[in-house]
Fold this protein.
Amino acid sequence: MRATTLTLLVMTAAACSSEHDASPYPYAADETTVIGAKAADGKTIGGAGSSGGDGVPTSSAAVGSSSVDAFTTETPDAKNCLDFGDGCAAPQEQCGENSTSDVILGENGEVLSVICYPNKDYEVLPIGDEVKNPDLGNNTVVTFDKLDDGDDVIGDLTVSGNNVIIYGSGPDTAVIGGNLQIDKNNAIVRGVRIRGNASITKNNASLIYCVIEGDLTITGNNVNLALCEVWGDVKIEGKNAVFVSNMVAGDQPIEGANLHCNDNHRFVDANKDGAIDDAEVGDDVLCISKDAVVANDPMLKPGIKK
């Protein structure tokens, strides 16, 4: 696994103050993770280098020499914002004051997506080891233990409720043993490994900081994929996908209608060890929009087919 991002980036509840320690939610309030930030001099934008709970670094250099995959900072207050050149992110406007959020950026710092994590009014469902077919109702946050002890969900997992968040501590410890199927709207899957395929049939889903060992198929609209490794084929049939700071197997291009891309790299597991070494990372992934160019990205070329 790529140590530069996938073993480092995690927001933990332990980062909270004593006031927040009693919170049932697995993420700290008043934190924003910025994904896809890029600076010409190779330095981070907007305050990277903070640490999360247990001393875990929350910033990490990307495989690209001039990019930074992600960093975590404090959520702005009032009318303040995080400035990224061509974009100014104010996640509190969408997610609320003291909110937890992910902000996904384009090539020049433009804000492509803001993903909100609730800090109230959701049921928290802890999952231990070897759970089968957990019932994921509406407005549920699913948590995993932090033990590296094999599959947490045995077999396939289907998201059958709206507004479900599956929040793991990282792909090394939070593992879905089969396929992931997202069949409802507004799902977020973060910090997990999917040993099978991932299929998204509904709208407004987000997969963040993940490993997909199989194929990824997206038929829903407005789907975000960021900070993930995809070891199989990628097929995007929905519209308005955001694809930022991912690692994709082989030399396959990423195609989609009204597609936004930034900071994606391809890899080949030459030694077949199931991990991505620096020497196995290749060039930028070619992104192809089937409609007009929607982001100022040199890798986004309209009208080109495989």
In short: Confidence is low (pLDDT under 50) at residues 1-20, 39-67, 293-306. Residues 62 and 233 are 22 Å apart (CA to CA). Residues 123-289 form one domain.
